[in-house]
Specification:
eight-stranded mixed β-sheet; 10 strands
């Protein structure tokens, strides 16, 4: 272990300050940002984001009496980026989360995730119920494991067009589209899924690619209201430094996860849970059956919310509303 991999200080931070630190994990190291004191709440971002997507939640949760910790998931930001694509399978990511909890001197934590982070949070609760005592899900609802292999499902979507998850599978392919202009691509991707800038229902769907085409061809030429110049700069700077391969490797493990987690087929998340999504988000409309099935797959569900007129980037598009909902849920949990 190198000096930079050691936790610099595991004491909680004051509500008014945030602290960056690197801690050891199975990945090598995980970068996190911590604010506040109290029960530990672990925040997991999605694609293509970083700990920074929780910048509006960290101070709010700290002020409400919680120890809020937002990590860079393996492959992102200042966390380690293993070269082997198989190092990004779900079991590995869950063990990173456990390592964070342990390094912070805690036995248990509440885990809250957005987008891919939502799926990682749910699987953390399934695989390590001894560590994760409650789970919050944003934008991507929980669907129990099982069914056909994911790669087969995605290959059937879109007809003559290719679904973006399939497009992401081949190493290097999406990188060749994104990395020549990371900042411009990110701006378009964020806009395509934001309520105030997403294409209308008659426009070509930005989740699909034409034969020989790119995702970017369908991105709107607009800037979401939540994404200022400095915020876009913060995201772009990280991905310009790291590239996108670590982030994309999460998608490239979906079939591995299907095999790895076969024993979880049909298993519900029994811990106290929470869900919030946007009414305009494709993740909630495509997976509406999963939401309608609640609370069967989430028998501990405390509350479920669909924010009218909100897109995919829920905690950034509607931070005050999300902060209030999450804080109310956390306050309802048993100590």
């Amino acid at each position: 272990m190198t000096q930079q991999d050691r936790p610099q200080d595991t004491s909680p931070t004051a509500p008014g300050s945030a602290r960056h630190r690197l801690i050891p994990s199975p990945a090598g190291r995980i970068h996190l940002v911590e604010q506040g004191s109290g029960p530990l709440v672990l925040l997991l971002h999605g694609f293509p984001e970083s700990w920074y997507s929780w910048r509006r939640q960290l101070p709010a949760l700290a002020a409400a009496g919680y120890r809020a910790v937002a990590i860079d998931v393996r492959g992102y930001g200042r966390s380690s980026r293993p070269a082997d694509p198989a190092a990004y399978r779900m079991r590995e990511l869950v063990e990173d989360n456990v390592a964070v909890v342990r390094a912070l001197g805690e036995r248990t934590a509440v885990v809250v995730g957005h987008d891919w982070g939502s799926t990682i949070a749910a699987d953390s609760a399934l695989l390590r119920p001894d560590v994760f005592r409650a789970v919050g899900l944003l934008s991507v609802p929980f669907s129990p494991h099982g069914g056909p292999r994911p790669g087969e499902i995605f290959a059937r979507m879109g007809g003559t067009e290719e679904f973006y998850v399939s497009y992401f599978q081949e190493p290097g392919r999406a990188e060749r589209e994104i990395e020549p202009d990371v900042r411009g691509w990110l701006a378009g991707f964020y806009a395509a899924l934001s309520a105030d800038t997403m294409p209308g229902p008659q426009a070509p769907d930005p989740h699909f690619v034409t034969a020989g085409g790119t995702l970017r061809e369908r991105f709107p030429d607009a800037r979401p209201g939540w994404l200022g110049e400095s915020e876009l700069d913060a995201y772009a700077a990280e991905f310009e430094r790291t590239g996108l391969t670590g982030a994309l490797n999460r998608y490239r493990n979906m079939d591995r996860d299907w095999s790895d987690l076969a024993e979880l087929e049909g298993a519900p998340v029994t811990q106290p849970s929470f869900f919030a999504g946007g009414s305009l988000d494709a993740s909630t409309t495509w997976l509406s059956d999963a939401i309608e099935a609640y609370p069967k797959p989430l028998p501990g569900l405390v509350s479920s919310h669909l924010l009218d007129g909100c897109g995919h980037w829920i905690q950034q598009e509607r931070p005050d509303e999300v902060n209030a909902l999450v804080t109310d849920w956390l306050d309802s949990l048993p100590e």
